[in-house]
Design goal:
Distance between the termini of chain A: 44 Å
Order of helices and strands of chain B: EEHHEHEHEHEHEEEHEEHEHHEHH
Number of helices of chain B: 12
Structural class of chain B: alpha/beta
Shape of chain A: globular
CATH topology of chain A: Sufe protein. Chain: A
CATH class of chain A: Alpha Beta
Radius of gyration of chain A: 14 Å
Strand content of chain A: 15-25%
CATH architecture of chain A: Alpha-Beta Complex
Radius of gyration of chain B: 22 Å
Number of helices of chain A: 5
Largest sheet of chain A: 3 strands, antiparallel
Largest interface: A-B, 38 and 33 residues
Helix content of chain B: 25-40%
Shape of chain B: globular
Oligomer: heterodimer
Helix content of chain A: 40-55%
Number of domains of chain A: 1
Strand order of the largest sheet of chain B: 3-9-8-7-6-4-5
Chain lengths: 134, 406
Protein backbone atom coordinates (compact mmCIF):
# COMPACT_ATOMS: atom_id res chain seq x y z
CA UNK A 1 0.00 0.00 0.00
CA UNK A 2 1.43 3.27 -1.11
CA UNK A 3 0.86 5.43 1.92
CA UNK A 4 2.89 8.54 2.52
CA UNK A 5 4.46 9.06 5.90
CA UNK A 6 2.10 12.00 6.41
CA UNK A 7 -1.00 9.87 5.90
CA UNK A 8 0.28 7.26 8.33
CA UNK A 9 1.11 9.89 10.96
CA UNK A 10 -2.22 11.65 10.61
CA UNK A 11 -4.12 8.37 10.73
CA UNK A 12 -2.28 7.10 13.79
CA UNK A 13 -2.55 10.37 15.68
CA UNK A 14 -6.28 10.53 15.01
CA UNK A 15 -6.77 6.91 16.04
CA UNK A 16 -4.73 7.25 19.22
CA UNK A 17 -6.03 10.62 20.30
CA UNK A 18 -9.53 10.96 18.89
CA UNK A 19 -10.71 13.85 21.08
CA UNK A 20 -7.74 16.08 20.31
CA UNK A 21 -8.33 15.43 16.62
CA UNK A 22 -12.01 16.35 16.81
CA UNK A 23 -13.54 12.92 16.51
CA UNK A 24 -17.08 12.99 17.87
CA UNK A 25 -20.54 14.44 17.29
CA UNK A 26 -22.63 17.53 17.93
CA UNK A 27 -26.39 17.43 18.31
CA UNK A 28 -27.48 17.67 14.67
CA UNK A 29 -30.68 19.52 15.73
CA UNK A 30 -28.68 22.38 17.27
CA UNK A 31 -29.39 25.52 15.19
CA UNK A 32 -25.69 26.40 15.22
CA UNK A 33 -24.65 23.02 13.83
CA UNK A 34 -24.44 21.99 10.19
CA UNK A 35 -24.03 18.31 9.28
CA UNK A 36 -22.75 16.78 6.06
CA UNK A 37 -22.50 13.10 5.28
CA UNK A 38 -21.11 11.75 2.01
CA UNK A 39 -20.04 8.38 0.60
CA UNK A 40 -21.57 4.93 0.95
CA UNK A 41 -20.60 1.81 2.90
CA UNK A 42 -20.67 -0.27 -0.28
CA UNK A 43 -18.02 1.99 -1.80
CA UNK A 44 -15.80 1.63 1.24
CA UNK A 45 -16.00 5.14 2.67
CA UNK A 46 -18.46 7.37 4.52
CA UNK A 47 -17.55 10.76 6.00
CA UNK A 48 -19.65 12.66 8.45
CA UNK A 49 -18.62 16.24 9.18
CA UNK A 50 -20.27 18.67 11.58
CA UNK A 51 -19.49 22.36 11.95
CA UNK A 52 -20.50 24.59 14.83
CA UNK A 53 -20.69 28.23 13.74
CA UNK A 54 -21.52 31.64 15.09
CA UNK A 55 -22.38 34.90 13.34
CA UNK A 56 -19.59 37.42 12.95
CA UNK A 57 -20.27 40.69 11.17
CA UNK A 58 -22.21 39.85 8.03
CA UNK A 59 -20.92 36.28 7.86
CA UNK A 60 -20.54 33.20 10.05
CA UNK A 61 -17.37 31.72 11.48
CA UNK A 62 -16.64 28.03 12.15
CA UNK A 63 -15.90 27.80 15.89
CA UNK A 64 -15.63 24.05 16.23
CA UNK A 65 -15.76 20.88 14.15
CA UNK A 66 -16.48 17.20 14.80
CA UNK A 67 -16.17 14.28 12.41
CA UNK A 68 -16.41 10.55 12.03
CA UNK A 69 -15.13 8.58 9.08
CA UNK A 70 -15.50 5.00 7.91
CA UNK A 71 -12.91 4.27 5.27
CA UNK A 72 -9.32 3.50 4.47
CA UNK A 73 -6.41 5.17 6.23
CA UNK A 74 -6.28 7.93 3.61
CA UNK A 75 -9.97 8.70 4.02
CA UNK A 76 -9.56 9.03 7.78
CA UNK A 77 -6.41 11.12 7.38
CA UNK A 78 -8.11 13.35 4.76
CA UNK A 79 -11.04 14.09 7.08
CA UNK A 80 -8.71 14.83 9.93
CA UNK A 81 -6.63 17.16 7.74
CA UNK A 82 -9.72 18.99 6.54
CA UNK A 83 -11.00 19.48 10.08
CA UNK A 84 -7.78 21.22 11.02
CA UNK A 85 -8.14 23.59 8.10
CA UNK A 86 -11.69 24.58 9.03
CA UNK A 87 -11.54 26.01 12.52
CA UNK A 88 -11.65 29.80 12.56
CA UNK A 89 -12.57 30.10 8.90
CA UNK A 90 -15.62 32.01 7.64
CA UNK A 91 -18.12 30.00 5.64
CA UNK A 92 -16.92 31.72 2.46
CA UNK A 93 -13.34 30.73 3.19
CA UNK A 94 -14.40 27.18 4.03
CA UNK A 95 -16.31 26.88 0.75
CA UNK A 96 -13.18 27.88 -1.10
CA UNK A 97 -11.17 24.93 0.24
CA UNK A 98 -10.24 22.63 -2.63
CA UNK A 99 -9.43 18.94 -2.46
CA UNK A 100 -5.97 19.56 -3.94
CA UNK A 101 -4.99 21.28 -0.69
CA UNK A 102 -5.63 17.99 1.14
CA UNK A 103 -3.88 16.01 -1.59
CA UNK A 104 -0.82 18.20 -1.24
CA UNK A 105 -0.82 18.31 2.56
CA UNK A 106 -0.99 14.51 2.83
CA UNK A 107 0.86 13.64 -0.40
CA UNK A 108 -2.00 11.37 -1.43
CA UNK A 109 -1.24 8.98 -4.30
CA UNK A 110 -3.53 9.14 -7.39
CA UNK A 111 -5.46 6.05 -6.30
CA UNK A 112 -6.49 7.86 -3.09
CA UNK A 113 -7.49 11.24 -4.52
CA UNK A 114 -11.17 10.36 -4.19
CA UNK A 115 -10.69 10.52 -0.39
CA UNK A 116 -9.89 14.23 -0.67
CA UNK A 117 -12.86 14.80 -3.01
CA UNK A 118 -15.09 13.17 -0.42
CA UNK A 119 -13.70 15.50 2.24
CA UNK A 120 -14.36 18.55 0.05
CA UNK A 121 -17.93 17.39 -0.54
CA UNK A 122 -18.54 16.85 3.15
CA UNK A 123 -17.75 20.46 4.03
CA UNK A 124 -20.00 21.72 1.18
CA UNK A 125 -22.87 19.66 2.53
CA UNK A 126 -22.28 20.70 6.12
CA UNK A 127 -22.32 24.38 5.12
CA UNK A 128 -25.50 23.92 3.07
CA UNK A 129 -27.18 22.25 6.03
CA UNK A 130 -26.09 25.07 8.35
CA UNK A 131 -27.20 27.82 5.97
CA UNK A 132 -30.59 26.18 5.51
CA UNK A 133 -31.12 26.47 9.28
CA UNK A 134 -30.40 30.20 9.45
CA UNK B 1 7.45 -15.73 14.47
CA UNK B 2 8.26 -12.07 14.28
CA UNK B 3 10.86 -9.82 12.74
CA UNK B 4 11.49 -6.21 13.68
CA UNK B 5 8.65 -6.69 16.21
CA UNK B 6 6.10 -7.25 13.43
CA UNK B 7 4.02 -10.37 13.94
CA UNK B 8 3.63 -12.43 10.76
CA UNK B 9 0.14 -13.84 10.26
CA UNK B 10 0.11 -13.93 6.48
CA UNK B 11 1.29 -17.49 5.80
CA UNK B 12 -1.33 -18.00 3.08
CA UNK B 13 0.42 -15.27 1.13
CA UNK B 14 3.84 -16.81 1.53
CA UNK B 15 5.80 -18.72 4.14
CA UNK B 16 9.39 -18.20 5.22
CA UNK B 17 11.75 -20.87 3.94
CA UNK B 18 12.29 -23.49 6.63
CA UNK B 19 15.94 -23.17 7.76
CA UNK B 20 16.44 -26.88 7.06
CA UNK B 21 15.32 -26.24 3.48
CA UNK B 22 17.57 -23.21 3.09
CA UNK B 23 20.65 -25.08 4.24
CA UNK B 24 19.93 -27.88 1.79
CA UNK B 25 19.56 -25.35 -1.04
CA UNK B 26 22.95 -23.86 -0.20
CA UNK B 27 24.60 -27.16 -1.18
CA UNK B 28 23.72 -26.60 -4.83
CA UNK B 29 25.10 -23.16 -5.60
CA UNK B 30 28.79 -22.57 -4.92
CA UNK B 31 31.94 -24.04 -6.54
CA UNK B 32 32.22 -26.41 -3.57
CA UNK B 33 28.63 -27.49 -4.03
CA UNK B 34 26.75 -29.40 -6.73
CA UNK B 35 26.27 -26.48 -9.09
CA UNK B 36 26.14 -28.51 -12.31
CA UNK B 37 23.52 -28.31 -15.01
CA UNK B 38 21.17 -31.27 -14.53
CA UNK B 39 20.93 -31.56 -18.31
CA UNK B 40 24.71 -32.10 -18.69
CA UNK B 41 25.06 -35.79 -19.49
CA UNK B 42 28.82 -35.86 -20.04
CA UNK B 43 30.26 -35.31 -16.54
CA UNK B 44 29.68 -35.87 -12.87
CA UNK B 45 28.65 -32.24 -12.18
CA UNK B 46 25.63 -32.82 -14.36
CA UNK B 47 24.96 -36.30 -13.02
CA UNK B 48 25.02 -35.12 -9.42
CA UNK B 49 22.66 -32.23 -10.12
CA UNK B 50 20.34 -34.53 -12.05
CA UNK B 51 20.33 -36.96 -9.15
CA UNK B 52 19.32 -34.17 -6.76
CA UNK B 53 16.55 -33.00 -9.10
CA UNK B 54 15.16 -36.52 -9.39
CA UNK B 55 15.30 -37.03 -5.64
CA UNK B 56 13.36 -33.80 -5.19
CA UNK B 57 10.86 -34.95 -7.80
CA UNK B 58 10.24 -38.14 -5.83
CA UNK B 59 9.70 -36.12 -2.64
CA UNK B 60 7.00 -34.09 -4.39
CA UNK B 61 5.46 -37.23 -5.88
CA UNK B 62 5.54 -38.92 -2.49
CA UNK B 63 3.59 -36.14 -0.77
CA UNK B 64 0.70 -36.41 -3.23
CA UNK B 65 1.05 -40.13 -4.06
CA UNK B 66 1.80 -40.03 -7.76
CA UNK B 67 4.56 -41.28 -10.07
CA UNK B 68 7.63 -38.97 -10.10
CA UNK B 69 7.45 -39.04 -13.91
CA UNK B 70 4.14 -37.19 -13.60
CA UNK B 71 5.78 -34.15 -11.97
CA UNK B 72 6.86 -31.25 -14.23
CA UNK B 73 8.91 -28.45 -12.68
CA UNK B 74 7.72 -24.90 -13.28
CA UNK B 75 8.56 -21.43 -11.97
CA UNK B 76 5.64 -21.59 -9.56
CA UNK B 77 1.94 -22.37 -9.25
CA UNK B 78 1.04 -19.50 -11.59
CA UNK B 79 3.06 -21.04 -14.41
CA UNK B 80 1.69 -24.48 -13.56
CA UNK B 81 -1.88 -23.12 -13.79
CA UNK B 82 -1.08 -21.43 -17.10
CA UNK B 83 0.54 -24.55 -18.50
CA UNK B 84 -2.34 -26.78 -17.46
CA UNK B 85 -5.16 -24.54 -18.66
CA UNK B 86 -3.72 -23.05 -21.84
CA UNK B 87 -1.73 -26.19 -22.58
CA UNK B 88 -4.69 -28.56 -22.47
CA UNK B 89 -7.17 -26.16 -24.08
CA UNK B 90 -4.86 -25.48 -27.02
CA UNK B 91 -3.82 -29.10 -27.49
CA UNK B 92 -7.39 -30.38 -27.55
CA UNK B 93 -9.00 -27.43 -29.29
CA UNK B 94 -10.30 -29.59 -32.11
CA UNK B 95 -12.13 -31.70 -29.52
CA UNK B 96 -14.01 -28.82 -27.93
CA UNK B 97 -13.73 -25.21 -26.88
CA UNK B 98 -15.58 -25.02 -23.56
CA UNK B 99 -13.89 -24.66 -20.17
CA UNK B 100 -15.49 -24.64 -16.72
CA UNK B 101 -13.97 -22.87 -13.75
CA UNK B 102 -15.28 -20.87 -10.77
CA UNK B 103 -15.57 -17.24 -9.70
CA UNK B 104 -13.43 -17.79 -6.62
CA UNK B 105 -10.34 -19.13 -8.36
CA UNK B 106 -6.97 -17.42 -7.97
CA UNK B 107 -6.07 -14.90 -10.67
CA UNK B 108 -3.50 -17.41 -11.92
CA UNK B 109 -6.47 -19.48 -13.13
CA UNK B 110 -8.91 -16.68 -14.00
CA UNK B 111 -6.50 -14.69 -16.15
CA UNK B 112 -5.43 -17.63 -18.37
CA UNK B 113 -9.14 -18.38 -18.81
CA UNK B 114 -9.73 -14.78 -19.89
CA UNK B 115 -6.87 -15.12 -22.34
CA UNK B 116 -8.44 -18.27 -23.78
CA UNK B 117 -11.73 -16.40 -24.19
CA UNK B 118 -9.85 -13.87 -26.33
CA UNK B 119 -8.59 -16.81 -28.39
CA UNK B 120 -12.14 -17.99 -29.04
CA UNK B 121 -12.75 -20.41 -26.18
CA UNK B 122 -15.92 -20.26 -24.14
CA UNK B 123 -15.58 -20.21 -20.34
CA UNK B 124 -18.23 -20.82 -17.68
CA UNK B 125 -17.47 -19.25 -14.28
CA UNK B 126 -19.38 -21.15 -11.60
CA UNK B 127 -20.80 -19.41 -8.53
CA UNK B 128 -19.82 -20.86 -5.16
CA UNK B 129 -22.44 -21.45 -2.48
CA UNK B 130 -22.61 -18.92 0.35
CA UNK B 131 -19.85 -20.78 2.21
CA UNK B 132 -17.45 -20.59 -0.71
CA UNK B 133 -17.74 -24.16 -1.96
CA UNK B 134 -18.12 -25.36 -5.58
CA UNK B 135 -20.34 -28.41 -5.62
CA UNK B 136 -19.84 -31.42 -7.92
CA UNK B 137 -23.48 -30.97 -8.96
CA UNK B 138 -22.79 -27.42 -10.17
CA UNK B 139 -19.87 -28.71 -12.23
CA UNK B 140 -21.99 -31.51 -13.67
CA UNK B 141 -24.79 -29.13 -14.62
CA UNK B 142 -22.41 -26.85 -16.50
CA UNK B 143 -20.89 -29.59 -18.69
CA UNK B 144 -21.66 -29.42 -22.40
CA UNK B 145 -20.66 -31.57 -25.37
CA UNK B 146 -17.92 -29.06 -26.14
CA UNK B 147 -16.39 -29.09 -22.61
CA UNK B 148 -12.74 -30.15 -22.61
CA UNK B 149 -11.46 -28.92 -19.26
CA UNK B 150 -12.66 -28.20 -15.73
CA UNK B 151 -10.40 -26.18 -13.42
CA UNK B 152 -11.43 -25.93 -9.76
CA UNK B 153 -9.19 -25.03 -6.85
CA UNK B 154 -8.72 -27.38 -3.93
CA UNK B 155 -8.48 -24.90 -1.04
CA UNK B 156 -9.53 -21.29 -1.49
CA UNK B 157 -6.71 -18.91 -0.65
CA UNK B 158 -8.91 -16.24 0.93
CA UNK B 159 -11.33 -18.40 2.89
CA UNK B 160 -9.58 -21.71 3.47
CA UNK B 161 -12.69 -23.62 2.39
CA UNK B 162 -12.10 -27.02 0.81
CA UNK B 163 -13.70 -28.25 -2.41
CA UNK B 164 -14.47 -31.93 -2.77
CA UNK B 165 -12.11 -32.53 -5.69
CA UNK B 166 -12.51 -36.26 -5.35
CA UNK B 167 -16.22 -36.06 -6.18
CA UNK B 168 -15.70 -33.42 -8.88
CA UNK B 169 -13.09 -35.73 -10.41
CA UNK B 170 -15.62 -38.56 -10.55
CA UNK B 171 -17.94 -36.30 -12.54
CA UNK B 172 -15.30 -35.19 -15.03
CA UNK B 173 -13.76 -38.66 -15.49
CA UNK B 174 -17.21 -40.08 -16.15
CA UNK B 175 -17.67 -37.54 -18.95
CA UNK B 176 -14.14 -37.90 -20.35
CA UNK B 177 -13.25 -34.31 -19.49
CA UNK B 178 -9.85 -33.23 -18.13
CA UNK B 179 -9.80 -31.95 -14.55
CA UNK B 180 -7.21 -29.48 -13.32
CA UNK B 181 -6.86 -28.55 -9.64
CA UNK B 182 -4.97 -25.56 -8.26
CA UNK B 183 -3.54 -27.02 -5.05
CA UNK B 184 -1.21 -24.16 -4.15
CA UNK B 185 -2.76 -23.87 -0.67
CA UNK B 186 -3.09 -27.60 -0.02
CA UNK B 187 0.34 -29.14 0.32
CA UNK B 188 1.29 -29.79 3.92
CA UNK B 189 -2.22 -28.78 5.00
CA UNK B 190 -4.37 -31.72 3.87
CA UNK B 191 -3.51 -35.17 2.58
CA UNK B 192 -3.66 -35.61 -1.20
CA UNK B 193 -3.78 -39.02 -2.85
CA UNK B 194 -3.64 -38.70 -6.63
CA UNK B 195 -3.77 -42.44 -7.07
CA UNK B 196 -7.24 -42.49 -5.55
CA UNK B 197 -8.55 -39.30 -7.13
CA UNK B 198 -9.58 -38.71 -10.73
CA UNK B 199 -7.56 -35.53 -11.05
CA UNK B 200 -5.65 -35.11 -14.33
CA UNK B 201 -3.56 -32.03 -13.60
CA UNK B 202 -2.61 -30.40 -10.30
CA UNK B 203 -0.60 -27.22 -9.61
CA UNK B 204 1.80 -26.90 -6.70
CA UNK B 205 3.77 -24.04 -5.20
CA UNK B 206 6.90 -24.32 -3.06
CA UNK B 207 6.66 -21.01 -1.23
CA UNK B 208 3.32 -21.71 0.48
CA UNK B 209 4.86 -24.80 2.08
CA UNK B 210 8.13 -23.43 3.55
CA UNK B 211 10.03 -23.76 0.28
CA UNK B 212 11.54 -20.99 -1.85
CA UNK B 213 9.68 -18.61 -4.13
CA UNK B 214 10.19 -19.06 -7.86
CA UNK B 215 9.56 -22.79 -8.11
CA UNK B 216 6.49 -24.96 -8.42
CA UNK B 217 5.31 -28.04 -10.24
CA UNK B 218 2.52 -29.35 -12.39
CA UNK B 219 1.27 -32.88 -12.00
CA UNK B 220 0.37 -34.30 -15.42
CA UNK B 221 -1.35 -37.68 -15.30
CA UNK B 222 0.13 -40.50 -17.40
CA UNK B 223 -2.81 -42.94 -17.23
CA UNK B 224 -5.18 -41.92 -18.73
CA UNK B 225 -2.69 -39.79 -20.55
CA UNK B 226 -2.98 -36.02 -20.61
CA UNK B 227 -1.21 -34.11 -23.34
CA UNK B 228 -0.59 -30.42 -23.50
CA UNK B 229 0.94 -27.76 -25.66
CA UNK B 230 4.05 -26.27 -24.06
CA UNK B 231 4.20 -22.55 -23.28
CA UNK B 232 7.99 -22.32 -23.27
CA UNK B 233 10.19 -23.86 -25.96
CA UNK B 234 13.95 -24.23 -26.01
CA UNK B 235 15.63 -27.54 -25.37
CA UNK B 236 12.75 -29.85 -24.65
CA UNK B 237 13.40 -30.22 -20.92
CA UNK B 238 10.75 -31.86 -18.76
CA UNK B 239 9.68 -34.16 -21.61
CA UNK B 240 9.03 -31.19 -23.83
CA UNK B 241 6.43 -29.69 -21.52
CA UNK B 242 8.67 -27.02 -20.00
CA UNK B 243 11.99 -26.07 -21.53
CA UNK B 244 14.71 -24.21 -19.72
CA UNK B 245 17.64 -25.21 -17.52
CA UNK B 246 16.32 -26.61 -14.27
CA UNK B 247 16.99 -24.43 -11.22
CA UNK B 248 18.62 -27.15 -9.14
CA UNK B 249 18.77 -25.24 -5.85
CA UNK B 250 15.14 -24.12 -6.13
CA UNK B 251 13.98 -27.61 -7.03
CA UNK B 252 16.00 -29.17 -4.20
CA UNK B 253 14.37 -26.61 -1.89
CA UNK B 254 10.90 -27.55 -3.03
CA UNK B 255 11.69 -31.25 -2.68
CA UNK B 256 13.03 -30.83 0.83
CA UNK B 257 10.09 -28.62 1.82
CA UNK B 258 7.63 -31.22 0.55
CA UNK B 259 9.57 -34.04 2.25
CA UNK B 260 9.30 -32.15 5.55
CA UNK B 261 5.63 -31.46 4.85
CA UNK B 262 4.79 -35.14 4.60
CA UNK B 263 6.74 -35.80 7.78
CA UNK B 264 5.35 -32.87 9.79
CA UNK B 265 1.89 -32.28 8.39
CA UNK B 266 0.19 -33.81 11.40
CA UNK B 267 2.24 -31.90 13.95
CA UNK B 268 1.77 -28.64 12.04
CA UNK B 269 -1.95 -29.26 11.79
CA UNK B 270 -2.28 -29.97 15.49
CA UNK B 271 -0.46 -26.83 16.52
CA UNK B 272 -2.23 -24.59 14.02
CA UNK B 273 -5.66 -25.98 14.93
CA UNK B 274 -5.03 -24.96 18.52
CA UNK B 275 -4.22 -21.38 17.46
CA UNK B 276 -7.23 -21.28 15.16
CA UNK B 277 -9.54 -22.34 17.95
CA UNK B 278 -8.15 -19.81 20.37
CA UNK B 279 -8.27 -17.04 17.80
CA UNK B 280 -11.81 -17.84 16.81
CA UNK B 281 -13.03 -17.91 20.43
CA UNK B 282 -11.53 -14.50 21.15
CA UNK B 283 -12.61 -12.87 17.90
CA UNK B 284 -16.18 -14.03 18.44
CA UNK B 285 -16.23 -11.99 21.67
CA UNK B 286 -16.11 -8.83 19.55
CA UNK B 287 -19.60 -7.64 18.50
CA UNK B 288 -20.73 -7.85 14.89
CA UNK B 289 -18.01 -10.10 13.62
CA UNK B 290 -18.66 -12.45 10.71
CA UNK B 291 -16.57 -15.46 9.79
CA UNK B 292 -16.27 -15.82 6.02
CA UNK B 293 -16.14 -19.35 4.69
CA UNK B 294 -17.27 -22.60 6.22
CA UNK B 295 -15.99 -23.37 9.72
CA UNK B 296 -17.03 -27.00 9.28
CA UNK B 297 -15.21 -27.39 5.99
CA UNK B 298 -11.98 -25.43 5.99
CA UNK B 299 -8.32 -25.63 6.84
CA UNK B 300 -7.36 -24.14 10.22
CA UNK B 301 -4.41 -22.13 8.90
CA UNK B 302 -6.70 -19.56 7.24
CA UNK B 303 -9.30 -17.50 9.08
CA UNK B 304 -11.18 -14.79 7.21
CA UNK B 305 -13.16 -12.37 9.36
CA UNK B 306 -15.33 -9.35 8.59
CA UNK B 307 -15.51 -6.68 11.29
CA UNK B 308 -18.70 -4.85 10.48
CA UNK B 309 -18.64 -1.02 10.54
CA UNK B 310 -14.86 -0.98 10.16
CA UNK B 311 -13.14 -0.71 6.78
CA UNK B 312 -10.53 -3.41 6.13
CA UNK B 313 -7.72 -1.23 4.86
CA UNK B 314 -7.91 1.07 7.87
CA UNK B 315 -7.95 -1.96 10.14
CA UNK B 316 -4.78 -3.26 8.50
CA UNK B 317 -3.21 0.16 8.94
CA UNK B 318 -4.30 0.19 12.57
CA UNK B 319 -2.75 -3.26 13.03
CA UNK B 320 0.58 -1.86 11.97
CA UNK B 321 2.65 -4.34 13.97
CA UNK B 322 0.80 -7.31 12.55
CA UNK B 323 1.22 -8.57 9.00
CA UNK B 324 -2.17 -9.68 7.67
CA UNK B 325 -3.97 -9.12 4.42
CA UNK B 326 -7.38 -7.99 3.25
CA UNK B 327 -8.52 -10.23 0.49
CA UNK B 328 -5.65 -11.53 -1.59
CA UNK B 329 -2.32 -9.75 -1.66
CA UNK B 330 -2.67 -9.17 -5.39
CA UNK B 331 -5.79 -7.08 -4.95
CA UNK B 332 -5.09 -5.18 -1.75
CA UNK B 333 -3.62 -2.27 -3.74
CA UNK B 334 -6.93 -1.69 -5.50
CA UNK B 335 -10.11 -0.20 -4.12
CA UNK B 336 -12.30 -3.11 -5.10
CA UNK B 337 -13.60 -5.30 -2.30
CA UNK B 338 -12.56 -8.95 -2.54
CA UNK B 339 -14.12 -10.63 -5.61
CA UNK B 340 -14.15 -13.88 -3.67
CA UNK B 341 -16.32 -12.46 -0.88
CA UNK B 342 -18.55 -10.79 -3.44
CA UNK B 343 -19.03 -14.13 -5.18
CA UNK B 344 -20.28 -15.58 -1.87
CA UNK B 345 -22.98 -12.92 -1.87
CA UNK B 346 -21.50 -10.99 1.05
CA UNK B 347 -22.66 -7.39 1.11
CA UNK B 348 -20.05 -5.00 -0.24
CA UNK B 349 -19.56 -3.34 3.13
CA UNK B 350 -18.77 -6.68 4.76
CA UNK B 351 -16.46 -7.53 1.87
CA UNK B 352 -14.74 -4.18 2.50
CA UNK B 353 -14.36 -5.12 6.18
CA UNK B 354 -12.62 -8.45 5.79
CA UNK B 355 -9.22 -9.48 7.05
CA UNK B 356 -7.44 -12.75 6.40
CA UNK B 357 -5.36 -14.12 9.26
CA UNK B 358 -3.19 -17.08 8.36
CA UNK B 359 -1.07 -19.11 10.73
CA UNK B 360 1.90 -21.36 10.11
CA UNK B 361 4.69 -23.55 11.36
CA UNK B 362 6.56 -20.69 13.04
CA UNK B 363 3.59 -18.98 14.67
CA UNK B 364 4.01 -18.77 18.46
CA UNK B 365 1.67 -18.46 21.44
CA UNK B 366 2.91 -14.89 21.89
CA UNK B 367 2.10 -14.02 18.27
CA UNK B 368 -1.48 -15.13 18.75
CA UNK B 369 -1.96 -13.59 22.19
CA UNK B 370 -0.45 -10.25 21.25
CA UNK B 371 -2.46 -10.06 18.04
CA UNK B 372 -5.70 -10.74 19.90
CA UNK B 373 -4.91 -7.99 22.42
CA UNK B 374 -4.14 -5.43 19.73
CA UNK B 375 -7.00 -6.48 17.47
CA UNK B 376 -9.80 -5.93 19.98
CA UNK B 377 -8.40 -2.54 20.85
CA UNK B 378 -7.99 -1.33 17.26
CA UNK B 379 -11.45 -2.51 16.20
CA UNK B 380 -12.91 -0.63 19.16
CA UNK B 381 -11.03 2.58 18.29
CA UNK B 382 -11.95 2.44 14.61
CA UNK B 383 -15.58 1.93 15.52
CA UNK B 384 -15.42 5.02 17.73
CA UNK B 385 -14.30 6.77 14.57
CA UNK B 386 -16.97 5.20 12.37
CA UNK B 387 -20.20 7.05 11.54
CA UNK B 388 -21.71 3.68 10.62
CA UNK B 389 -21.11 2.32 14.11
CA UNK B 390 -22.67 5.47 15.56
CA UNK B 391 -25.74 5.04 13.37
CA UNK B 392 -25.94 1.38 14.28
CA UNK B 393 -25.86 2.28 18.01
CA UNK B 394 -28.60 4.84 17.34
CA UNK B 395 -30.72 2.00 16.00
CA UNK B 396 -30.58 3.09 12.36
CA UNK B 397 -30.81 0.28 9.82
CA UNK B 398 -28.01 1.07 7.38
CA UNK B 399 -29.82 -0.69 4.56
CA UNK B 400 -32.60 1.91 4.67
CA UNK B 401 -30.27 4.92 4.45
CA UNK B 402 -30.06 6.75 1.15
CA UNK B 403 -26.35 7.12 0.64
CA UNK B 404 -24.68 9.92 -1.17
CA UNK B 405 -22.47 7.59 -3.17
CA UNK B 406 -19.67 8.76 -5.41
Amino acid sequence: MAYSKKVVEKFENTLNNPEAFKVGRFDPKDANVGTGMVGAPACGDVMKLQIKCEPKGNTHVIKDVKFKTYGCGSAIASSSELVEMLIGKTLEEAKAIKNVEIVEALELPPIKIHCSVLAEDSIRQAIEDYEAKQ
Amino acid sequence: MSTQSTIYLDYASTTPVDPRVASKMMEFLTPEGEFGNPASRSHRFGWKADEAVEEARSHVANLVNCDPREVVWTSGATEADNLAIKGVARFYKTKGNHIITSKIEHKAVLDPCRQLEREGFEVTYLDPDDKGVISPEAVKAAIKDSTVLVSIMHINNELGTVNDISKIGDVTRDKGIFFHVDAAQSTGKVAIDLEKMSVDLMSFSAHKTYGPKGVGALYVRRKPRVRLEALIHGGGHERGMRSGTLATHQIVGMGEAFRLASKEMEADHKKISKYHEKFLDKVKEIDHVYINGDLNNKVPNILNVSFNFVEGESLIMGLKDIAVSSGSACTSASLEPSYVLRALGRKDELAHSSIRFSFGRFTSDDDVNNTLDILGNVVHRLRELSPLWEMHLDGIDLDTVEWNAH
